[in-house]
Write a structure and sequence with these properties.
8-stranded mixed sheet; FAD/NAD(P)-binding domain; alpha/beta; single chain; Glycine oxidase ThiO; D-Amino Acid Oxidase, Chain A, domain 2; glycine oxidase activity; 2 domains
Length: about 375
């Protein structure tokens, strides 16, 4: 029996497993499909909330801490696995922001670089953006990762750790709770036991808890995205070289010149199908920002399910009423953004270390009695 059993093989689950294993503990990670193939793969890879000034302080605090860790994590994974996760800090251009005063007030409080820029600055950075842009906001330190590569790197790291048992295609059928304590799970591959159980199931996290009268308010929110193949441009440039955000939609460049556009926000339960309506909407949003994309091939169109939680604040900590059961879920649009800090916080709690971030705002115990009973 291992020390820890982790349910869910997304970035949150895999990072948690890495940290616990590197601290010397035996870890079993159970994934119903293949690691890194759900929301962690489907996202865009921006490692900041899209409009960070619109989030509460608990989310901002995790985002700040995570941002400080990404460069180090990228270097560690490259050294350990040989996989470059394409961590890039080329900044973000905001177009048509209607609450700029709020943004600047937030930036001043946080000590975060943000400035107003004119058209000449914007077109010097991105010469093929649409015409008629007069001004925007510039966040020079924003970074992004190529999240499918991050998933592959984390999985490769886990495979190399001798104290990790990675079980894929092992759907969890139920949690095993005996005398008020979680001690394992039943899967299609049999019973698996561990000293403590950690639920990192993303949008599916609440399903397992519901059987034990815990109504975790984490719901699936579908997001559809598309990927364009772009041609080489003059002067050795790419068609787009940094993240651009306008009217809630964003363009993200990849190292090979591809451009990703996202995303929709849809309440469709656990439906991950793509739609013609979303495809058309995303295409028009992309072309409105970067007109040359009208002549580029759409290589892929996909959907993923974000784990939405009230106010976007994730649940991190021990589940009330069930000893030995912990959760790290509900990161909504910011799973990749918050992952290094959210997982470090939970691992600190699990190992009895002093956490760098106050865990109180994220504790599942903030659930009220009505949430506990499902009433």
């Amino acid at each position: 029996m291992n020390d820890f059993l982790i349910i869910g093989g997304g970035v949150i689950g895999m990072l948690t497993a890495c940290q616990l294993a590197e601290a010397g503990h035996g870890v079993t990670l159970v994934e119903r499909g293949y690691c890194g193939q759900e929301a962690s793969w489907a996202g865009g890879g921006i490692v900041s909330p899209l409009y960070p000034w619109r989030y509460s302080e608990p989310v901002s605090q995790l985002a700040r801490s995570a941002g400080e860790r990404y460069a180090e994590m990228a270097a560690m994974l490259l050294d350990a696995t040989g996989i470059d996760i394409e961590y890039r800090q080329k900044g973000l251009l905001y177009l048509r922001v209607d609450d700029a005063e709020r943004a600047f007030a937030w930036a001043q409080r946080q000590g975060w670089p943000l400035e107003k820029v004119e058209a000449s600055f914007i077109y010097a950075k991105e010469p093929w953006l649409c015409e008629g842009i007069d001004e925007g906001l510039w966040m020079p330190t924003l970074g992004s990762v190529r999240n499918p590569r991050l998933c592959r790197a984390l999985r490769a790291r886990l495979e190399a750790l001798p104290n990790v048992l990675l079980m894929e295609q092992a759907a969890v059928q139920r949690l095993i709770v005996e005398r008020g304590r979680a001690c394992g799970v039943e899967t299609g591959q049999g019973r698996i036991e561990a000293g403590r159980v950690i639920l990192c199931g993303g949008a599916w996290s609440g399903v397992l808890l519901a059987e034990h009268d815990v109504a975790l308010p984490v719901r699936p929110v579908k997001g559809q995205m598309m990927l364009f193949a772009t041609p080489p441009m003059t002067g050795g440039r790419q068609l787009l070289e940094r993240v651009v955000l306008s009217d809630g939609r964003y363009l993200i460049p990849r190292g090979d010149g591809r451009v990703l556009v996202g995303s929709t926000l849809e309440q469709t339960d656990f439906d991950k199908s793509t739609t013609a309506e979303a495809r058309e909407s995303l295409w028009h949003s992309a072309v409105a920002m970067l007109p040359a994309l009208a002549d580029c091939e759409v290589e892929q169109h996909w959907a993923g399910l974000r784990p939405g939680a009230p106010d976007g604040i994730p649940f991190i900590g021990e589940v009330p009423g069930i000893a030995g059961l912990f959760v790290n879920a509900g990161h909504y649009r910011n799973g990749l953004v918050l992952a290094p800090a959210a997982t470090r916080l939970l691992v600190d709690l699990l190992l009895g270390r002093e956490p760098a971030i106050d865990p109180a705002p994220y504790r599942p115990a903030r659930l009220g009695a009505a949430d506990r009973t499902g009433a």
